[in-house]
Every structure is written in C-alpha cells, then in structure tokens.
Design goal:
11 helices, about 20% strand, two-stranded antiparallel sheet, BirA Bifunctional Protein, domain 2, eight-stranded mixed sheet
C-alpha cells in the first residue's frame, strides 16, 4: 500500500508539534478518527485480494499502533508539563506564619434586634421574654381574640399535638409576641414599658413570608398615655433605626382585637432608581400595626382599665431588616448560605450605638 511512510512522518511530526491537549486531539481525529486518513485506508482493505489485504492490513495496524503510542506519550508529557507549571504557581512556603481564620459574622436579624433594643432602651423600654410554645389562653383569649377568629384555625396556626383524651388547654407555637406583654403585665403590673422581640410562627410561605419569622412588639402602660405618645415613640424609633434626620408617619384606621382604636402605620418614602429612601418622596409604605390597648386585654393581665391605659405596636424584624439593608428575599434569612452571611453579616464587635450610628 503506497503512501504509508509519508503518513507516518506527517502524523508523528504533528504529534510532536502539538502545543496542548486540544491540538493533540485534532491530530488524533485527523489520523485515527472515524473519518481520519488511516481509518479510511482501513476501509479500502475490503476491495483488495486476500494476499494483498493481509499484507496491507498488517502495515496499517503497525502504523496505527505507532501513531497511537506517540499520541499517548505526548499526552502524558503535556500532563506532566501542566502539573509542573501548577506546582510552580501554587508553591507555598510552609515556614510562613499561619493565616488567620475567617471571622464569624452576626446574622442581620440578630443585629437588627440589637439595634432596636438600643433605640427603645434609650426611651426607657425594657426587654421582656416569654416561651415560644404558648397556651391557647395567653396567645388568643387574653388578647381578646374570639374563638371564631381566622388566626385560631389550623390553616393559620401551628397547634401542638395532644394525646386522645387529654383535656388540658391546647398549646400553640406563638403567632405573635403579644403573649409576652400579657405575662409582663401580670408579673410587673403598671406602669410598665417593655418591648418583646422574638421568633413567631404562622402558616405563610412565599417570597415575603416564612413559617417562622421574627417580630418585636412594644407596650407602654401609664395613667395618661395617649395616641400622641404612640406617634412620637414610633417617629423617634423610625428616625433612629433608618438613620435619617426626619420621618413622616401616616396612621390609617384598622382593626385588631387587642387594641382600640387601632391603626396601621405607613412611612413616607421613595423608590427612585429602585432604591428605597425613607423620609422623602411621595410614596407610602406600611411598616407596622398599633393602637391603644383594649380594656379587656388590661383586665386579662390583671391591670385595672379604669386607672391605667396605654399603647401597643408590633412590626416584623425580618421585614425592617430587608428595608434597611436592601435584602430582596426573606427566604435567604433562613437558607444558611455562608456567602450570603459574609455579604450581609456584621462583625461580632459591631455593637449598635446611638451616638456613633447604629450601622457605623
């Protein structure tokens, strides 16, 4: 068979000159691929005489083996060269001092809890805490929530399992931190000023709701407290929390079983260029609910409503954290993604300080 020596020289030279594995693969396909020159000559064997086919086939197999061996050797040499280059570029002096470990970071929810605690502490509010598994009475009855209220249905609330025949009052995963206010009033009486931050649980699941989230509620009880005191407190909180010189709040009449009168509170803002700016613009955004504590709630907590009155409010900690720090999706708070936490997290010693700036 003519031309085998020329093919041998051609492809052995091409193998030797290949600069990388991609170029080597092109040589292999040109020679030994299905449509390669040597493969096509192998197909021609079928049209030869038996004696001629036997001799030509042997020569083609020898040529194929030589080129294949050259390809393998070149591939190994390229791999060794790449490894040597990698070892040179990734060389490490083991006698150098150890690198510091990455710092841990504070979760934005924890940081915002510290921020709002600092703000309300400056206004004379103490922090009150309570259990996350609450009795039906503390979570609903004491807060003047009637039996037919939707919040008392299983599609809205997580009820704890009870054995058959168990006649004890039902327990729930608390749906708000308002039961903490009842416990605080029952233990301390009046006057009282407390905030109750913590985890709460409801059957909500989407981009802006999760089954477990965080809430803070505030309570102030005294003899002459009015809605004017509530408005001032909320304005001072929003101004300090969002770190703006002034804010404007709008109260809209609403209904909550535990307050009367009740109001939803909106804050003036703008969304210029997709960026939220608090205290300016012509838009309004709802941020919390509030009102004067219902006399029945005071009575349930052992406080005489003929002598004492006060206000209460509640807001989502996760939501105000999203607004302040530009976090787009509530679900990311609970996904345990370290990259997210390194981006949005706070250094362990970044304690909020009203004088120096909460997020400085």
């Amino acid at each position: 068979m003519d031309g085998l020596d020329a093919l041998k020289v051609k492809y052995l030279t091409a193998v030797a000159n290949a600069a990388d594995e991609a170029g080597l693969e092109e040589v292999r396909l040109a020679a030994l691929g299905k449509k390669g020159e040597i493969s096509l000559k192998m197909r021609d064997l079928g049209g030869m005489e038996p004696t001629q086919r036997q001799a030509a086939g042997a020569m083609l197999n020898v040529l194929k083996d030589e080129i294949d061996a050259a390809l393998r050797a070149k591939k190994a040499a390229l791999a060794d060269t790449a490894l040597d280059e990698r070892l040179r570029s990734e060389w490490l002096d083991v006698t150098l001092p150890g690198r510091p470990r990455p710092r841990g970071t504070i979760h934005p929810v924890s940081q915002v809890m510290e921020e709002l605690t600092a703000i309300f502490a400056d206004m004379g509010f103490a922090v009150a805490e309570g259990p996350q598994v609450e009795s039906d009475w503390f979570n609903f009855d004491a807060l003047n929530i009637p039996p037919e209220h939707p919040a008392r249905q299983e599609h809205d609330t997580f009820f704890m399992n009870r054995a058959e025949g168990d006649d004890r009052p039902p327990h729930v995963l608390r749906t708000h931190t308002s039961p903490v206010q009842i416990r605080a009033m029952a233990e301390q009486g009046a006057p009282i000023r407390v905030i109750a931050p913590g985890r709460v649980y409801r059957m909500d699941m989407d981009q802006t709701h999760t089954p477990m989230f965080h809430q803070v509620e505030g309570l102030a009880i005294d003899r002459n407290i009015s809605m004017a005191n509530l408005k001032w407190t909320l304005e001072e909180f929003c101004r300090a929390f969002f770190e703006v010189p002034s804010v404007e709040l709008r109260f809209r009449a609403s209904h909550f079983p535990f307050t009367e009168p009740s109001a939803e509170v909106d804050i003036r803002c703008s969304w210029e260029g997709g960026q939220l700016k608090i205290g300016q613009g012509d838009k309004w955004m709802e941020i919390l609910g509030s009102g004067m504590v219902h006399p029945k709630v005071l009575t349930a907590a052992g406080v005489n409503p003929d002598e004492w009155q006060g206000f209460a409010f509640g807001m989502g900690i996760d939501r105000i954290a999203m607004l302040k720090y530009g976090i787009p999706d509530l679900r990311a708070f609970f996904e345990s993604d370290l990259r997210w936490l390194r981006h949005y997290g706070f250094a362990a010693l970044d304690m909020p300080d009203l004088a120096g700036g909460l997020s400085a």
